[in-house]
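Re: the 404-residue chain
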Amino acid sequence: MAEPPRPELLSFLGAIKAEPEEDTPKLALADWLQEQPSSSDQARGDFLRQFVRNNQLAKTDPAREDFGALVRLWNANEKAWARRLRAAGFAVWATNHMFRWGLLFPAHEWSWGGGWDDGAELSRTEEYAWVAGIAVRCINPDGGPAFVESPLFGSLIGLRVAEAAGSVGLVGQLCGTAREHRLRSLEIAFTGAPIYGIAQSPQLAGLRHLAVRHFPTITEFRYVCDSTYLKGLRVLDAPGAGLDAGAGHAFADGAGLPALTELNLGPGGGYTRNRLGPDGLRALFAGVPSGRLRKLNVASNTVGDAGVESLCAQPHMSNLTHLNLADNGVANRGAVAIAGAEHLETLEHLTLSGNAITNDGASALAGSPHLTSLRRLDLSANRKLGARAVATLRERFGDGVNVH
């Protein structure tokens, strides 16, 4: 029988799970762990502090530790940190996704219809207290209610469902239970998900991150944009979801999502792509909450120079820090528009890879009086840039320039 979790640790972990994107609770826990006599606690404090540090620095920053350093820390302490999880059938790999929020997000191959009560003892351990979310591949139709009512589910703030077989019932159960969930992140990787149920579920009103791989029609996307229960949603992730220009209009016409700070409509891992085009992108901007959006990914959306020019004409996009316009047929005209956009002064990461920008466009970016915060500029896979243009870019933006 494992000893119950330390109350102080549960308090710190509870603060992290309440605001998983915030760094202050993580650093407070790291301080407490490093004050404990156990070398395992001290190592986990080091791990958490390094995780926060990496998240705060750009990938190109020389002060950033490589991910391998986190992996080595994990491997050296895995037996102390994850022995019971592995014994219970969790796949605990040293990957970025598993270390989400500085906590654990392991996977499980559950596919049966019951047996969730077997997790009661595990749920009362310190090891499981570190688990913030679970990636579930598949659950049989009658397994959804058992999982949602199990002691393993009660403390989770994240859930990722990978396969459709039987998992529709699981998501339906999430939407239909009588009590509100703690879930802050829901990722659905299968088609046929009950989007309407998610958008109309008061039980999911605490969601901050919603990821949907595929919307069968614009109607399903409109359900999300119109939801009265997703007003706290900060991240909408719909890469490769098969959306066209109508999605931009649905977003603009929608009544919800006033808290949105990150929108990802870039390419997904499969063959499907979003195709907003310049018209859809223009419509989209009309629906973006004024001044709130920080990260926008519209890579591979055929927006062209016209779409970029419409973006650059939107003063309410003035707080963007990350903008991804890769593979959009953008040429020098679009680069000149970005260089002249006064409201893009907060931009830190700009991705223009896979476009048709030449020396003239690169020179315009290098000479921009407005891109004063830019730390990373990706111009890889464009037309071949001359040595002088590359030197000018690096003189202006430093080592964060990528042209290969």
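Residues 212 and 238 are 5 Å apart (CA to CA).
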